[in-house]
Amino acid sequence: MPVVCTIPNLLSLFRILIIPVLVYLLTFPDRWSSLLAAGLFLVASVTDYFDGYLARRNKTVSDVGKILDPLADKLMVASALIMLAAIDRPHEPSVPAWLVVVVLARETAVTVLRGIALSESIVMHAESLGKYKFILQAFAVVGLLVHYEYWGFDFFAAGFYFLVLSSAIALWSGVNYHLQFFRLRQARVSRV
């Protein structure tokens, strides 16, 4: 089986392929579309756990998977947040665009940094903060996608709380990635 066609990589590809459907659903600001988008995002988020678990269990961890998995997460979250900042729900709060910019700037900075590290043959391991960040982002996006109040529970407020919390952790982990890069680069230069 080619490296790309492993079950973990196919799960990552699934997360990327749902993005157009998610974006389409978010062009409709009604409750039903919001629930469908939230359900789809939730299912896709759960596959993030399984792709890593299956790759380790079946010993099918690959370089393609190491790139595809975080890329799928970032694209999925970015697409949802951009649409949530742009969606027009009358008389309802929306996601502040500045917060989306902060999240996307962090993701871009870390992705560029990992690319630079890779070009210099520096291996940067994913930190556990990154997984916690994604879990909190998933909670945030699901709550923000549901948006409306059900059973007396304000899903928008809960989603916004998790978005702020995940953004703080994202910034913290972004600083840690930069520090890790500079430490590894300095150690490499010292050995030469």
Q: What does this molecule look like?
A:
The model has no long low-confidence stretch (mean pLDDT 83). It contains 7 helices and 2 strands; from the N terminus they run H-H-H-H-H-H-E-E-H. With 192 residues, the chain is an all-alpha fold.
Detail the topology: elements first, then pairings:
Elements: H1 7-17, H2 19-25, H3 31-57, H4 63-86, H5 97-119, H6 128-146, E1 149-150, E2 153-154, H7 155-191
Antiparallel strand pairs: 1-2
Helix pairs in contact: 1-3, 1-4, 2-3, 3-4, 3-6, 4-5, 4-6, 5-7, 6-7
Gist?
The chain is mostly helical and 192 residues long. The protein is built from 7 helices and 2 strands, in the order H-H-H-H-H-H-E-E-H.
Number of distinct helices = 7
SS content category: mainly alpha
Largest beta sheet: what is the strand line-up? 1-2
The unreliable regions are none
Q: Report the strand count.
A: 2
**What is the molecular shape?**
globular
SSE succession: HHHHHHEEH
Oligomer: single chain
- Rg from C-alpha positions? 18 Å
Cα-to-Cα separation, first versus last residue: 40 Å
Main sheet characteristics: 2 strands, antiparallel
Bin the strand percentage.
under 5%
Key attributes of the depicted protein:
globular, 192 residues, mainly alpha, 2% strand
